[in-house]
Amino acid sequence: LQIIRQSKRTAKFVPILVHEDLNWEQVARISARIPELPGVDVIESSQRIYPIAEAAAHPIGYIGPANKEDLANEEVKKTPNIQIGKSGLERSYDQPLRGKAGTSKVEVNAIGRVVRELENDPGAGGSTLVSTIDSELQRFVQNRLGEDTGAVTVMDVHNGDVLALASNPTFDPNVFAQGLKGDVWQALLKNPAAPLNNRAIAGQYPPGSTFKMLVAMAALEAKVVTPKNAFFCSGVHELGAGRFHCWQRGGHGWVTLHEAIAESCDVYFYEIARKVGIEKISEMARRFGLGEPTGIDAPSEKGGLIPTKEWKRRQLKASWQIGETLIAGIGQGFVLTTPLQLAVMTARLVNGGISVKPRILRKKGEEEFPPEGTRIDVSSEHLKAIMRAMRAVTSSASGTARNSQISVKAYRMGGKTGTSQVRRITAQERRLGGIRNEDLPLAQRDNSLFVGYAPLTNPKY
After folding, report:
1. Is 420 a known active-site residue?
2. What pTM did the predictor assign?
3. Residue (of 124, 130, 132, 170) closest to 151 by Cα position
4. pLDDT one-digit tens code per residue, 69-81
5. CA-based end-to-end distance of the chain
6. From 131, 209, 282, 420, active-site residue
């Protein structure tokens, strides 16, 4: 029925696919009877194969049959059974990869059999693209995610090469190229874990404490604090009738910027966020790559959200509250970022303040190192202070990631842990000591984050 319907809406000279993936025995049987089957022909064709399949499904993307919207393109419309890029690099570079279709003008007899070829245009092959993705590293990080829902981005801090861009759960792009069955497509669409969503570039999450370095930079640059200023953390910060808690019950005591980042003291960042204000925090965040798309070659990239007073007035028709500044100071509230943006932020913090931009494609003949980005106008001493604190996160006795430090000295890393709540913790839960994350439904569990750089001296990744 599908073939009959297609024949009615297709020009008579356009071939219709009746069957594909024939084995050699089937090809031989049909070929032997071709004289008895006017209008039938066996045609060899190529098929897209994705060698590392699920591991690179999100950054590379997949191809599939042209849909109604795609057929609005005359070139696509004139090519029977064409498959075009649907996501990732396949979609961004569909035309260059596809090349130019060839044409053949032929003379046929009364029963439609080709008598001779009159004209032939062989067309042109597609371009060769070179991705920055390291296939072995991509496989490793995708496997490392295991059964967890999440994303991993690995980036060169100097030239912006994205060496790995993994999102989990994932899918096999080969099933699209081979002809996706309706039930498989529906299963992918209805899966609550959204395997088609590239979380690395389109997942927008509160960054939690990984945002604290930028709050610290904003406060240092505005000269409202110095690295030596200390604040006392009792475990709670009071603002009017509001109580803003630190994750450490009982508090951290007196902490400077160094200890505050290493131990992730919330009260310290409530204090300095209140002093510097949301406008300067937002401005610093944008300078380090947050709040707008990074510009990577990916059609589904999202920009996150870095709020301002004007944004709230415009979008929510309400005034900004000081308490919202405190919450933004620990990377929660309205603040949203993507994992790729956090990698860009970290690269700019540790590469000397160069506004490096991520790239997933190296164009033919392009230098390994693209033209140097502009230098962000911040103090090099402040950048060094932030890096020392990030080193303490993984290397000091009280650092929040001390148990995750790399044991091989040459490969040791600095970084910052982060946890962001997706639900409000009630006063009763606090009195009872809270609820274990693993005891909550998946949708209500905290998000866990980590940004890092390595090696400690002259960072590369």
Report:
1. no
2. 0.87
3. 170
4. 776 776 666 666 6
5. 56
6. 209
